[in-house]
Amino acid sequence: MSSGKVQTVCGVISPDQLGKTLTHEHIRLQYMCCYLEPKTDSDKERARDPEIRLDNLGWIRQYPYSHIENLKLGDETIKSMITEIGFFKENGGGSIVEATTVGINPDWEFLKEVSQSTGVHIIAGAGHYMGFTLPEYAKDASIDELCQEIVKDIEEGRNGIKGGVIGEIGCTYPLTDLERKCLIAASKAQKITGAPLLIHPGKHHDSPIEIVNIIKESGGDVTKTVMSHLDRTIFEYSGLVELAKTGCILEHDFFGIEVSHYQNNLAVDFLSDAQRIYRIKHLIDQGFEDQLVIAHDVHTRHRLVKYGGHGYSHILCNVVPKMLQRGITQEQVDKMLISTPRRWLTFSK
């Protein structure tokens, strides 16, 4: 076991080696599972455009899940991604949690090469994504079999490369039977390994609390669990406070997305970075500054610097200065980027 250590794709490290940490990103995945077919003929033509250029970037930002090539982050070359992650390192970044799990094509050997080339610590995710993305074997597997698959990825690894976090564990709302099974398996695997747990909740304000209750019932550690995507899930401040009171770690992870149109849920008006900061400030003022982490959740190509996007350094270069201007202290920023990720990622067994 890696008790008291953090497990990266290049081996175990001391928690104090992490530095500034993004707790939810993707460096290599295929996201065609979430492609949304446009309705008009002109947009269908745009969807098939094999390039991302200045003359279609505005449309892609508005409809990121309808441009086929945009969903193929996994087609980026190793050289390209070393450059992208290198920018993060140059701007003071230390570590990245890479949240790609079974269902969206994780590639741990690719991650290891990026880590070795950039000096950025990368923590790979074990476990299973949303039910409709999963291979047939997962549908037929028992909870114990799925649990043991995760435990093996954490303790033995794949070709010697070990996972360092369980998740992101994909959930929809309401939970499907398969997703409930995978969530219970992940919770049990967390209990066995002492690994951190990372959750992708369903797109409904009741989903995070439901998931927290299942984790508790399954023997998982809620205090070692990050609840992702809250900036598209819970919109009332009171709901954020209610979730924080469970003891889980709250993650706002769409920093850099400044388009109010949320293609995955038209009932939702997507937040701006400024609104995300105000929500975080409210949680700090309510006494939860030790339960907050932040990220970008880069998972489409148009968000890379290469294509005119914000890249993995946006939080360090642009968000942190605005946080300081809006009354969040440097100590509180350091908790979100350093001490809370460090505590979460340290194995308890």
Describe the structure concisely for a colleague.
This protein has twelve helices and ten strands. By secondary structure, the chain is α/β, with parallel strands linked by helices. The chain is globular, with a radius of gyration of 19 Å.
Description:
With 349 residues, the chain is an alpha/beta fold. 39% of the residues lie in helices and 13% in strands. The protein is built from 12 helices and 10 strands. An 8-stranded parallel sheet has the order 3-4-5-6-7-8-9-10. A two-stranded antiparallel ribbon has the order 1-2. The radius of gyration is 19 Å and the shape is globular.
Task: Summarize the topology.
Layout: E1 6-8, E2 11-13, E3 20-25, H1 41-47, H2 54-62, H3 78-90, E4 93-98, H4 108-118, E5 121-126, H5 136-140, H6 143-155, E6 165-170, H7 177-193, E7 197-200, H8 207-217, E8 225-227, H9 237-244, E9 249-252, H10 273-285, E10 292-294, H11 314-325, H12 330-345
Parallel strand pairs: 3-4, 4-5, 5-6, 6-7, 7-8, 8-9, 9-10
Antiparallel strand pairs: 1-2
Helix pairs in contact: 3-4, 6-7, 7-8
